[in-house]
Amino acid sequence: MCRWMTYSGEPVLADDLLFRPVHSLIDQALHSKLGATTTNGDGFGIGWYGEGDVPALFKSTEPAWNDENLRELAGQIRTGLLFAHIRASTGTPVQRSNCHPFRHGTWMWMHNGGITGFPTIKRELVGAVAPELYPHIEGSTDSEVLFYLALTFGLRDDPPAAVERAVGLVEEVAAGAGIRHPVQMTVATADGSTTWAFRYSSVGRSRSLYHSTHIGQLRRMHPEVPVFGTLPDTARLIVSEPLRDMPDAWAEVPESCWGMITEDGRGEQHAFAPRRP
Amino acid sequence: MCRWMTYSGEPVLADDLLFRPVHSLIDQALHSKLGATTTNGDGFGIGWYGEGDVPALFKSTEPAWNDENLRELAGQIRTGLLFAHIRASTGTPVQRSNCHPFRHGTWMWMHNGGITGFPTIKRELVGAVAPELYPHIEGSTDSEVLFYLALTFGLRDDPPAAVERAVGLVEEVAAGAGIRHPVQMTVATADGSTTWAFRYSSVGRSRSLYHSTHIGQLRRMHPEVPVFGTLPDTARLIVSEPLRDMPDAWAEVPESCWGMITEDGRGEQHAFAPRRP
Amino acid sequence: MCRWMTYSGEPVLADDLLFRPVHSLIDQALHSKLGATTTNGDGFGIGWYGEGDVPALFKSTEPAWNDENLRELAGQIRTGLLFAHIRASTGTPVQRSNCHPFRHGTWMWMHNGGITGFPTIKRELVGAVAPELYPHIEGSTDSEVLFYLALTFGLRDDPPAAVERAVGLVEEVAAGAGIRHPVQMTVATADGSTTWAFRYSSVGRSRSLYHSTHIGQLRRMHPEVPVFGTLPDTARLIVSEPLRDMPDAWAEVPESCWGMITEDGRGEQHAFAPRRP
Amino acid sequence: MCRWMTYSGEPVLADDLLFRPVHSLIDQALHSKLGATTTNGDGFGIGWYGEGDVPALFKSTEPAWNDENLRELAGQIRTGLLFAHIRASTGTPVQRSNCHPFRHGTWMWMHNGGITGFPTIKRELVGAVAPELYPHIEGSTDSEVLFYLALTFGLRDDPPAAVERAVGLVEEVAAGAGIRHPVQMTVATADGSTTWAFRYSSVGRSRSLYHSTHIGQLRRMHPEVPVFGTLPDTARLIVSEPLRDMPDAWAEVPESCWGMITEDGRGEQHAFAPRRP
């Protein structure tokens, strides 16, 4: 099972999000991702918006907890929109091109979950990707194909509708191949200013997804947590894993929902329903 | 430009083929591959038949000349059929799944050259791969797609005909996309007992391909070359690069030709002509 | 905490030792090493005697469970004496030269444990290594320094005495630096025919160490375990980790003991006592 | 032979220094380092001052020209003091801890050249490193030992004197071991505001070292070179390799010299003479 987080808000140091001391909020969120006890050792990646419009990616097949370059860079990257992803491979090779986040132009995408029976239906799904987008697929994961299907169906114009159509197509193709409940996903995507997150599974029991509650409140409630003092009021976090010991810091995104967080910190949440072709 | 070699004959140590002292035959063949002066630093691979019917692969994205594991293994691998390949990427990522040789069942395949305009026609070429073979494609190279096209067209039954049909398809698809002279290749493939090699380019100016002349003769002519004393009489080598200073050791495979070397060391050579669909 | 195993006996395939199906003996021994639930992701290594007198090493900083080359090679390596080690770094860099087993001439060495306060006393310990051996130290671990101290004190002539002197020196130097209980170790070393194993800690609570009981008996007692049918009667295994569900397969090496297994499968066990300089 | 460059001046994007188009000044300087024709494939590193006082390091054992992370980061790193180094190993392992630049506190250090007979005299040289500095040595290169000797002899207080004493010690120890002409070096070191460069060899034939002439002049002389328009007037570059086709852009640092460039762009140049203990 992969794990991921997104940050949006005023620019902060990636180190404050990824490597802060043990009792910090984010450290807890990332505990099983970047800590010594994790099994998510199949590569990792971060993506962030900094210089220029196109997000930068740093990805590696080393376990994140061993990667000295990651620690170095986390202390230098100051960004207002960061994605971080820890991969647990479901079979495709452990290689940089299979590490999340994926990027196309100014867009980033990352995914936790999988498409059941992907080897069986990959050919048909890939065939549905727009011919002009197809050559940009670099790796071999279901996650990246889902991204390119969403791009094909208009991600850049209407992200929720495009993801609904992409998921609908996967469900349609899977049904034709006799595969039940093909989609399991929590997805995050961003264009540099807005972040969208999706929680959905065909079977109706999706992997978890949480967003942060107001940092200002948390700062007042938990003066003992240093990172609350570091993160700005505008900080908005979305994480794939619940926090056991600070339940008031997180709100669960409901089943079959998508949400968005705009540049100025406003959030919305709506129902998600796949649209079959 | 990639470089490769094949060995077939009585079992020898891979070290005798890959890392023998400076004036040895194979050392010269591999000089620019494994030596300090090469630019072929985009990964390498070896494949060999040993235990079991399926060939074993050792591939790495480290430059071959730095790979301590390769040096260790070369001293332990004893085999009668070895492929070695040094990659120079033409754009696809430097990752293990893009390193040659490729394998399917008992078959190995490696390639020097490229398909012009591959990003443009990849989608159509991949669409022509047999659906049951498609999920086995692991990397993103033109070389691997060519292998799966050849498998689709019957590589396991009639290798020369299958490669002629695969190349014919590529030329047909490329023509449809307005791409001239799409194929440039020297290819080697093997099933565990026989090795086939192909030299062809659409433009009629193929990259070089050489096979060894009789080792017994060379041993008599060049008693000063130690590796001639090590390699058995049955040794047959095919290499992508000419040797400058031992011309009598190598015979050039002519333009638009394929050859085969059987387990007992017999060789054949025939004309190669793409078959369009 | 590192984990390791040694095999000695008639030649077997490394695959039978490292990757056999879920209910096999060795699979259980290695479950937390090579399986998906381990945290031992800081590199691994295997060493074995094959061609020539010098053991071959295959080491990588990839997690062992991700390393496709390891899986390939395990199916090709047939050996009568194998070391396998999974590293959990205690601070020194994750790099090949810090992966076990270490090698000097025909000798291999691997270690689980550590030297407390190593950064403080490293300079003095390294200074005690014989000048002619010193340049052969390649990495930066305490484990390798312990190996070179043992070599300095006569490992090649009398392994138990040499290790007792090496450990004695470490304890002496540590005492001088005010460090209590400096040594924690289970160590294996071999010369190509005999394997020695050591269990010792300054504090008297050493990490665990087990050796296999007679495979012939186990085969009769557990006909349902396929690997018992594969391994020869001469098979002798030493492992750092107990097996929870097959207690009759393993005997614990007592605290402060060393044991040896000769080429013909005979074993001895003796008390271990550090010898201060 | 390693290659390196330093940049100091107003903050610029690392991309402008490392990856600018073919006809740019720096591209030429780095041509054989980062280009496709190089043999410097034994790892690389960059170090720069950004957030905080301690420089950040990004190092990898991948060839620099293959490293996608380097390309990504070069587009994001904006710095006023950058070191870049491409390694050609002279025997020590290709591993991150052997890649330059090295760092201690706020200081960086990189080196082209080597210490002749280093394996023979390493023990004595390492023994001369201050005990409190010794544990910080991470790798196994002569270059890093030279750095720690310089730190031992007061690099942080008087860099030229400290390097003169470090080199003097190496020559003294080498003489005692019968090694002639032990030191070959071009070295760069920096503390975050000032950069020092050294050109020296015991034999009196040092590897090359160049510094840029005034960028403002070059901009006027070469309006056709885009990077001259990008780099600020304060830009000061020191490079290990001459540029063949823009001789007016570079001035050679003479044999047995050291130079320094301060934060405000002023430079000095003095004679360098080893000081034996």
Compute the average pLDDT of chain A: 87
Order of helices and strands of chain A: EHHEEHEEEHHHEEEHHEEEE
Distance between the termini of chain A: 29 Å
Oligomer: homotetramer
What is the fold-level CATH name, i.e. the topology of chain A?
Answer: Glutamine Phosphoribosylpyrophosphate, subunit 1, domain 1
The biggest beta sheet of chain A is recorded as: 7 strands, antiparallel
Low-confidence stretches of chain A: 21-39
Strand content of chain A: 25-35%
Query: What's the CATH H-level homologous superfamily of chain A?
Result: Aminohydrolase, N-terminal nucleophile (Ntn) domain
Walk me through this protein's architecture.
Chain A has 277 residues and is α+β, with helices and mostly antiparallel strands. Chain A has a single domain, classed as 4-Layer Sandwich (Glutamine Phosphoribosylpyrophosphate, subunit 1, domain 1). In chain A, 26% of the residues lie in helices and 28% in strands. Chain A contains 8 helices and 13 strands. The first copy, chain A, has helices at 14-18, 25-34, 68-74, 118-127, 142-152, 159-176, 215-221, 226-230; strands at 3-13, 44-48, 56-60, 78-86, 102-104, 107-115, 183-190, 195-201, 210-212, 236-239, 250-252, 257-261, 267-271. In chain A, the strands form 2 sheets. Chain A has a 7-stranded antiparallel beta sheet. The first copy, chain A, has a 6-stranded antiparallel beta sheet with strand order 5-6-7-8-12-13. In chain A, strand 2 and strand 3 (56-60) form a beta hairpin. In chain A, helix 5 packs across helix 6. The longest helix of chain A has 18 residues, at 159-176. The radius of gyration of chain A is 18 Å and the shape is globular. The model of chain A is unreliable at 21-39 (pLDDT under 50). The A-D interface holds A 13, 50-52, 56-60, 68-69, 72-73, 75-78, 96 and D 13, 50-52, 56-60, 68-69, 72-73, 75-78, 96.
